[in-house]
Specification:
Elements: H1 3-28, H2 33-49, H3 53-60, H4 62-65, H5 68-86, H6 90-116
Helix pairs in contact: 2-5, 5-6
Length: about 120
Amino acid sequence: MSVIFLSYLKAFVVGGLICLVGQLLIDFTKLTPARILVAFVVAGVFLSGLGLYQPLIDFAGAGATVPLTGFGATIARGVRDAVREYGFMGILLGPLTASAAGITAAMIAGLIVSLVFKSGDKS
């Protein structure tokens, strides 16, 4: 197998397993999707804080960074780096600095979609 195919396979399997956990939470608990999404971000922060998420990122690449757990890990890494550099103010500055590109891309995509498609009632 080629190295590229193997990296795609690892990303697919790990990302799929993360999504499977989310689907199982939707199917077998009374948690709302919004709470599950928040739980994934918090899990990413928690696992990153324990040093457990970076090895998963190193192994699976995009399979671990694209889901919301990866966003949580990005926030935790941003806080850690900013606290080292700026002290206490890094708690507020770090998450915004680390995730600015992703937040900006989401806002621009939302703006484009809102301009292209017409909203209306679901009936």
